Amino acid sequence: MNKVITLGQFIIEKQADFPYAKGELSRLLRDIGIAAKIVNREVNKAGLMDILGNAGSTNIQGESQQKLDVYADQQFISALKCGGECCIVASEENEDIIRLDTDVSKNAKYIVAIDPLDGSSNIDVNVPVGTIFSIYRRKTTAGQASLKDVMQKGTEQVAAGYIIYGSSTMLVYTTGKGVNGFTLDPSIGEFCLSHPDMQIPERGVIYSINEGNYVHFPQGVKDYIKYCQVEDPKTNRPYASRYIGSMVADIHRNLIKGGIFIYPVTSSAPNGKLRLVYECNPMAFLIEQAGGRATNGKDRILNLTVTELHQRSPIFIGSKEMVKKAESFNLLNEILQKS
Ligand code: AHG
Ligand code: MN
Ligand code: MN
Ligand code: MN
């Protein structure tokens, strides 16, 4: 039996990578792990609890909040507040930033941006959902931390990752020194190292996009989809089309098997659908750390300027060679007027 390395042990062992850190980031990652276990417990018995269906409220995105969206949001915010290592939380489910102003938290040095429950449309049908998190160091040095501390470029992230509540529950994260995956062992309630040093294959044969929006895509995206579907044994085409509808699940599959995930601009979503701060940036940091690539069809996601908390961006992310090939198509061209 292999030696079991828990998330906590791993974080402490990796502490040596950060000689100047005094353990705050380690404790912050621990707090996220605790909230993940609590959310996992509810996701796993959702059908038995009054936690399915919608909460009867609408979030800033204009989406009707699912009960699990609200529950996960509350659990992560409270775990971060109790942990005391985070001074501000920016969440998909809250219009404004949330200041954690307990005596300890208000002087904390980290900011957390979070998508507490990703893939909400899949909650009631038992399809994998996730949580996405992104951690920044506070930049302001005096007074209260502010929105400026949140709206940093993706290159400034100190850590990022996701939890996938799937056939097993995994926590996958990076602190800028590679990507490691931990599987929750419910018998001991610990995330245990199961996927050390994860690397995304340079090439793959899976493309992941909601083809239901085909008529609304730019011509370049349509041309790339056709490229994926053409028979060419030399380049292992046609590729397989796989789309789960939870960004975390689609990207986790591609991280392991290789592939490209695309959420492009469409005529109804001129900036794309996925949010830069708590979906695109954390996933881009993680996939780059695993040897992959993430752009908006032209520019590196991590270099994009953040102008609004909930701003959206198109995203092409995954196996490096596949994203580069897709970029040779004009992916951001004007949406062709419907003929
Ligand atoms: P969220 O549930 O956090 O709002 O995110 C849903 C996102 C993402 O998980 C997924 O890739 C995408 O929405 C699916 O969008 P479509 O249903 O438009 O394909
Ligand atoms: Mn949502
Ligand atoms: Mn999401
Ligand atoms: Mn969400």
Automatic annotation (TrEMBL):
Mg(2+) 1 binds at E92, D115, L117. GO terms for biological process: fructose 1,6-bisphosphate metabolic process; fructose 6-phosphate metabolic process; fructose metabolic process; gluconeogenesis; sucrose biosynthetic process. InterPro entries: FBPase_C_dom, FBPase_class-1, FBPase_N, FBPtase, Fructose_bisphosphatase_AS. Its cofactor is Mg(2+). CDD domains: FBPase. Residues 5-196 form the Fructose-1-6-bisphosphatase class I N-terminal domain. Residues 200-329 form the Fructose-1-6-bisphosphatase class 1 C-terminal domain. It comes from the Bacteria. Its main location: cytoplasm. It catalyses: beta-D-fructose 1,6-bisphosphate + H2O = beta-D-fructose 6-phosphate + phosphate. It holds the Pfam family FBPase. Keywords: Carbohydrate metabolism, Cytoplasm, Hydrolase, Magnesium, Metal-binding. It is found in: Cytoplasm. One of its GO terms (molecular function) is magnesium ion binding. Its EC number is 3.1.3.11. Binds 2 magnesium ions per subunit. GO terms for cellular component: cytosol. Substrate binds at D118, G119, S120, S121, N210, Y243, K273. Pathway: Carbohydrate biosynthesis; Calvin cycle. Mg(2+) 2 binds at D115, D118, E279. PANTHER family: FRUCTOSE-1,6-BISPHOSPHATASE-RELATED, SEDOHEPTULOSE-1,7-BISPHOSPHATASE, CHLOROPLASTIC. Belongs to the FBPase class 1 family. Homotetramer. HAMAP family: FBPase_class1. This is Fructose-1,6-bisphosphatase class 1.
